[in-house]
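Comment thread on ticket #2218

A.B. wrote:
> Attaching the input chain for the structure job we discussed in standup.
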Amino acid sequence: MKESNKRGTISFASAGPNTRTTQLFINLVDNGRLDSMGFSPFGTVVEGVDVIDKLYMDYGEAPTNEQEQMMQGGEAYIAKKWPNTDKILTARVEGGAAPAPAPAKKSIAPTVKKTQPVKGTAEK
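C.D. wrote:
> Ran it. Output below, let me know if you need it in another format.
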């Protein structure tokens, strides 16, 4: 069953058919019109939708042509241009496959093999 961009679903932004960007958004309202445009939801906010409703929204939803400046300037650019923007500091993904175990840490100590003394020399 294909998911729809309903309120509370999380989608990747799209630049057209068969594309994805690294930008994510949470649908604040039902946006079924985005389904045919390639915006595929991949998750749903299951707790805390009331918190999303409290995010600063006065900048509106108009797209910006400042993507390049945002990428180059990062958080400092965004903070200067849109100082009231809220930030997500922590997020947790639940469900799905268990995470892969962390790789075992390798010892950084060198491996030393003791050799037998060469005939005619003394071991100290």
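A.B. wrote:
> Thanks. Noting for the ticket: The chain has two helices and three strands.
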